[in-house]
Amino acid sequence: MIVADKKREQIIEGAIKRFSHFGIGKTTMNDIAEDLSVSKPSLYYYFPDKKSLIVGVIEKVFTDYFEQLKKKYNPDAPLETVLFQTIDIRNTFFMKYFMLKISEGVPDIFSDETMKKKFTSLKDSEKNFYAQIFSRAQEKGEIKHENMAHVAELYLESLLGLTNMCIMELGKDLLPDKKAVNRMTMKQKDLSTIFAKGLKC
After folding, report:
1. At which residues is the DNA-binding region annotated (predicted)?
2. What are phi and psi of 37, to 5 degrees?
């Protein structure tokens, strides 16, 4: 079982490298098999089609992201400090995996029911984590609101909006440079400060 899990992990890591360099749309299962020097039957044993491999990649990225969030989260720290830290983690992953461009590589990916459910599940997990952050801040008397799930949803959508603005300004074919990401990060942190102050008791 450990060997099988390790092989699956190796395939996902290989897919991430290939997707990032050549794009998801231009990558075939044959390409990945050749990169990893594995037989096609072996590759299809772990991932029966390209879509299932993409799901595996998405799960890997989000699992690593959530692990970092939970590892760094200090429930006793001030809300602004916590939000700033989560922004740094989000943007580190944004830079690391930007070139995957999943939605661009597979235009119909979001119309697939399996993929929809997976993305919804991952999005809900992130929203629940942030709802816990805001709920903890309320327990400490930092903020007050009757619906922390709604607060978390609004906050995440606001961060996403700033991220999308950064991408639009650069152009879809460019990799965000450090200055662009720093500008985006500062705007997101300014937003977080305004958000936290607006929720104060």
Report:
1. 28-47
2. 55, 45
Give the DSSP per-residue string, 124-167.
HHHHHHHHHHHHHHHHTTS---S-HHHHHHHHHHHHHHHHHHHH
70-123: pLDDT as tens digits: 999 999 999 999 999 999 999 998 888 877 765 454 555 666 777 778 888 888
pTM of structure: 0.85
Q: Rounded to an integer, what is the distance from CA 172 to the centroid of its chain?
A: 18
Rounded to whole angstroms, the Cα distance separating 132 from 70 reads: 11
Rounded Cα distance, 173 and 154, in Å = 29
How many Cβ atoms are within 10 Å of 163's Cβ, its own excluded? 19
Q: Domains plus CATH for the chain?
A: 1-48 (1.10.10.60), 55-198 (1.10.357.10)
138-to-101, 130, 135, 144 alpha-carbon distances in Å: 36, 12, 5, 6
86 and 172 in contact (C-beta within 8 Å)?
no
Q: CA triplet 31, 33, 35: central angle to 5 degrees?
A: 70
Q: Give first-to-last CA distance, the chain, whole Å.
A: 52
Q: Could you identify the residue written with the tokens 């099988």?
A: 4
